[in-house]
Amino acid sequence: MPLALPAHPTPIQTGIRQRSAGRRSRLGRATELVFLLASGAILTLPAPALAQTWAGSTDTLWSTPTNWIGGAVPGAGGEVVINDGTLANQPTLDVNSAALLSTTVSDGTLTVASILTSTTVTVSDSGTLTNSGTITGNLAITGGTLNNAGAVFGNVLLSGTGILNLDPGTNITGTTLTVDGGTLNVNDTDTLGALSGTGGTIVIDP
To answer: Measured between alpha carbons, how far is 195 from 198 in angstroms, rounded to an integer?
Structure first.
């Protein structure tokens, strides 16, 4: 059935009113800012999240503050970087992590023995992530290796030269797994959820 358009260009008029309101709003904020500065008030802007890099200075425990550059365990909204495979002490997540913004393993090995909660988890280059606990977040494996013997909640993207090894009996039915490249090694006792992709290699071991 044909769709009848209104005789008057109402959307155009609405757009003009919206832009005018936007200009008034911007002027209001600018006036407020001038007032704050003129009155001597302190205007505090939130600091951007800083990446916290693993140094492994003391031991292998994630929960040890001195193992992190800056001397603090990553907190909520933090960005974690594991990027040095030459360190003698590679990190083991021994406590439930705070809700991190991102976790990147580009070199070295991160072992998850507890619960890792991170909006994004990226394994790249020559990094290795070994999970025997729980990972909650969206995973991207573009290089390196993810060895999974635990639980994963979130979407998983395998691409590039990444390798995903699923231990026998792995159950990730709540995960959408996309294979666009790399190698997925599974066993006939594994249980997968939604599987899709445009490339890569899937190896099924008996």
So the answer is: 11
- The phi, psi pair for 44, rounded to 5°, reads -110, 120
How many angstroms separate the first and last alpha carbons of the chain?
57
Backbone angles phi, psi at 14, to 5 degrees: -60, -40
Q: How is residue 57 written in tokens?
A: 């200075």
Q: What is the dihedral of CA 59, 64, 68, 73, to 10 degrees?
A: 160
In this structure, are residues 105 and 84 in contact, taking their beta carbons and an 8 Å threshold? no
- Residue 81 in 3-state DSSP? strand
- As a whole number of angstroms, the distance between CA 145 and CA 105 comes to 10
**Alpha-carbon Rg of the chain, whole angstroms?**
24
DSSP state letter for 200: E
Distance of alpha carbon 142 from alpha carbon 147, whole angstroms: 14
Tell me the helices (H) and strands (E) count for the chain, helix number first.
1, 14
The rounded distance, in Å, linking the Cα atoms of 61 and 53 is 14
pLDDT in tens, 48-61: 557 999 999 999 99
For 161-180, how does the pLDDT look when each residue is reduced to its tens digit (9 = 90+)? 999 999 998 888 778 999 99
Predicted TM-score (pTM) above 0.85: no
User: How far is residue 55's CA from residue 73's CA, in Å, rounded to a whole number?
Assistant: 12
The owner of tokens 């599974």 is 186
